[in-house]
């Protein structure tokens, strides 16, 4: 009997030693950060109806791109696959006219030429823009990844910060260290003063990382999420569900706190899946294999 117990004990020790030790952090693929799962605080009781009510949701661990997909990264995908974006197939895309204060469909505007033909080309280390939700999914599939759910996106923005903190970096857009995100300075739709150094997109990572090790979680470009846009459970909002309308998170260089406070960690936006804009991009996630 003692011998049997000894064999069982040694077998158990061996099996435990083969498992991943608690607290071990998996090595993240290149360009990604490990986001350890847990209970996520989602929404806000003080925000717009579509952010209410605040609740908690369990998130499984995942890897997330450190920064939005760049122009250079998207070009590799296009060169490898011959992919043509929705904007290229449509022949136009949405660009904001700063002088006329309105959105315009510009012929020839796409991820290569964000402002249209004859204008400066897209910069390699800036987020790729003029990509639809379908384009973002095509890239993600090619890269062996997927788009994040909006809960995964918010969880990554909130990790390590107080529940009521407004932004991933703190409660102020600017402090003694300067600006923390690329957003609109001035009152929209008047002149963007560009006090953060940029009128449109900025190089990824320019404003540093949050506590999850991620860059541009707030400002620069809106980011597509996997989800169809819908009201939260028990929400006072009444959102008609349309499978073609998808969630956007994070705000952009066009966001002004008096008009579009998109860089709040709880803020939600949406648009149709085939749409493309000069202030919208994406980042990807990858599941952690147990």
Please tell me about this protein's structure.
- There is one protein chain.
- This protein has helices at 2-18, 71-81, 86-90, 133-142, 150-158; strands at residues 32-35, 38-42, 55-59, 62-65, 92-97, 102-107, 174-175, 178-179, 222-228, 245-249, 269-272, 280-281, 285-287.
- The protein has a four-stranded mixed β-sheet with strand order 11-10-9-12. A three-stranded antiparallel β-sheet has the order 1-4-13, with no helix packed on it.
- The chain has one domain: Alpha-Beta Complex (paralog of FGE (formylglycine-generating enzyme)), CATH 3.90.1580.10.
- A hairpin with a 4-residue loop joins strand 5 (92-97) and strand 6 (102-107).
- Residues 1-20 have low confidence and may be disordered.
- By secondary structure, the chain is of the alpha+beta class.
- The chain starts with a helix and ends with a strand.
- The protein contains five helices and 13 strands.
List the helices and strands and how they pair.
Blueprint: H1 2-18, E1 32-35, E2 38-42, E3 55-59, E4 62-65, H2 71-81, H3 86-90, E5 92-97, E6 102-107, H4 133-142, H5 150-158, E7 174-175, E8 178-179, E9 222-228, E10 245-249, E11 269-272, E12 280-281, E13 285-287
Parallel strand pairs: 9-12
Antiparallel strand pairs: 1-4, 2-3, 4-13, 5-6, 7-8, 9-10, 10-11
């Amino acid at each position: 009997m003692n011998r049997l117990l000894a064999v069982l004990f040694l077998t158990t020790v061996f099996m435990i030693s083969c498992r991943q030790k608690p607290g071990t952090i998996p090595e993240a693929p290149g360009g990604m950060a490990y986001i350890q799962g847990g209970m996520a605080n989602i929404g806000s009781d003080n925000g717009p109806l579509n952010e209410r009510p605040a609740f908690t949701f369990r998130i499984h661990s995942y890897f997330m791109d450190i920064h939005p997909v760049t122009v250079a990264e998207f070009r590799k995908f296009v060169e490898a696959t011959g992919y043509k974006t929705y904007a290229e197939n449509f022949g136009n895309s949405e660009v904001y006219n700063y002088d006329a204060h309105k959105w315009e469909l510009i012929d020839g505007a796409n991820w290569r030429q964000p402002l249209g033909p004859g204008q400066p080309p897209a910069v390699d280390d800036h987020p790729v823009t003029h990509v639809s939700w379908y384009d973002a999914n095509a890239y993600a599939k090619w890269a062996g990844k997927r788009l994040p759910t909006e809960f995964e996106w918010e969880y990554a923005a909130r990790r390590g910060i107080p529940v009521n903190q407004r932004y991933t970096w703190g409660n102020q857009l600017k402090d003694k260290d300067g600006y923390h995100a690329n957003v609109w300075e001035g009152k929209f739709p008047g002149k963007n003063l560009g006090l953060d150094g940029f009128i449109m997109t900025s190089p990824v990572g320019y404003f540093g990382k949050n506590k999850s090790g991620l860059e541009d979680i707030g400002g620069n470009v809106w980011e597509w999420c996997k989800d169809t846009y819908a009201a939260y459970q028990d929400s006072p909002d009444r959102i008609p569900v349309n499978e073609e309308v998808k969630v956007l998170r994070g705000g952009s260089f066009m966001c002004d706190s008096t008009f579009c406070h998109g860089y709040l960690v709880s803020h939600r936006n949406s648009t149709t899946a085939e749409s493309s804009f000069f202030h919208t991009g994406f980042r990807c996630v990858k599941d952690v294999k147990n």
